[in-house]
Amino acid sequence: MVGGGFQNAFKIPELKKRIFYTLALLIVYRIGVHVPTPGIDGVALASFFAKVEGTIFGIFNMFSGGALERLSVFALGIMPYISASIILQLLTVAIPHLERLKKEGEHGRKKITQYTRYGTVILSIIQGLGISVGLESMSSPGGAPVVIYPGWEFRLITIITLTAGTAFIMWLGEQITERGIGNGISLIIFAGIVANIPNAIGNSFRLLSTGEMGVFALIILLVLMILVVGFIIFVEQGQRRIPVQYAKRVVGRKMYGGQSTHLPLKINSSGVIPPIFASSIIMFPATIASFIAIPWIQSIASSIRPGNVVYELLFVSFIFFFCYFYTAVTFNPVDVADNMKKQGGYIPGIRPGKRTADHIDRVLTRITLGGAIYVSAVCVLPSILISKFNVPFYFGGTALLIVVGVAIDTISQMESHMLSRHYEGFLKKGGGKMKGRL
User: Fold this and answer.
1) N vs C: which end of the chain shows fewer Cβ within 10 Å?
2) What angle do the packed helices 184-194 and 152-179 form, to 10 degrees?
3) Are 155 and 129 in contact (CB under 8 A)?
4) For 109-135, what is each residue's pLDDT tens digit?
């Protein structure tokens, strides 16, 4: 770390301002999570969510930081924005116009961002309508309806409120990205997940005080948590570096190139997209079945809930599929090989062009297998801990991958700011000497 550690971060005025700006907007987000949507019986809604753990509602509630179970103005969270981003990334493969925009640099990026915003609003309206209609059919275990005055008036208010809430979160994320530290959208999800940690700690101490969990078991759990977090950090920063050599070129009287570098390929290049998609697809039938009181449908739905063998097998299968699918969509070995060839680069021992693309594809396929095994292991861990060892909180899975990944990215952003500040100061100090020699 430049400058002797994070304690020096607050000594740099610009970095200090960015940190406090980020914290201020995250506090605004957490306040909004507790602002309720009109027309809802909060007690009945909380009772309903107590019985739908393990369905798609549970996943959305986790990513919204508990806003969905309160049905606050931020109940949809940032998921519509993420869904719109993923859809646009997938459409770039099928629609030539979007593919051209992706290659146009800053102008194309702004246009795609604009399309993503429109897609976010459309998805928010659709999801807001679905939630409002679904809420009208919900009731607590005691029979109390969740919606006080059902009808189109309630639906329109809910759609407008939830859509505006998501748009505001999207704006917060963009402001954090531009004027704060790190990726704003990721930090908002991070804040929502981390907000559940105090509750998990409280549950652990409660079980410890009542004797349901022993001190020795708690120590083993803490050691396991440290080992898992360390393992995730190790793998997330892991790369397979393919050596690349650039040929020497003579332009006029000067010679360029000739240096050696490498092409870094991440072990987990697809990030947290595979487990998010896999969880949503598997839990969708369980969510639908919770509204259908037919015995055979209920039995099928119960077999694909977390902790069951069928669920875990399907979950791992979908993770493998989406790891390969998303990597294939976001990383094109042919384009990489062509760009490398245009710049005079080649992999030692491999002919440029198709041979290079095939080699990169072969290496990428192998490391994606390792990445899929790693993501599957981390995501299956919570079910094992909860079902076999009676762990009082959800540890591992998509939430832990997001928390660790965002933490690493935020630290890297702070290091970059401190490093740029360090070189800026170096150049200012040397500026007088440079001018004196001219």
Assistant:
1) C
2) 110
3) yes
4) 788 888 889 999 998 898 888 878 877
